[in-house]
Specification:
The protein is mainly α. It has five helices and no strands.
């Protein structure tokens, strides 16, 4: 599986990452800033200034939702 993820044997970069989507579920195992859960890039890359200002770079989506970040409430 690790070789498939890296695109070994396919001849086209990391096709696995480019062709899957993350299901967030309850958000406990999805990292808010690092995982691709909104769009095609992690939020830390899409909003680098907000990432720099964030107190907890390791927060999960569930933790951020509990804090009221993101308009879920």
């Amino acid at each position: 599986m690790c070789n498939v993820r890296g695109g070994v044997g396919v001849g086209v970069g990391s096709w696995f990452d480019n062709n899957i989507r993350r299901v967030v579920g309850d958000g406990r195992h999805t990292r808010f800033w690092y995982d691709n859960w909104v769009g095609d890039v992690p939020l830390r890359n899409k909003f680098p200034r907000l990432f720099d200002l964030a107190v907890n770079h390791e927060a999960s989506v569930e933790e951020m939702a509990r804090l009221g970040v993101g308009g879920w409430w």
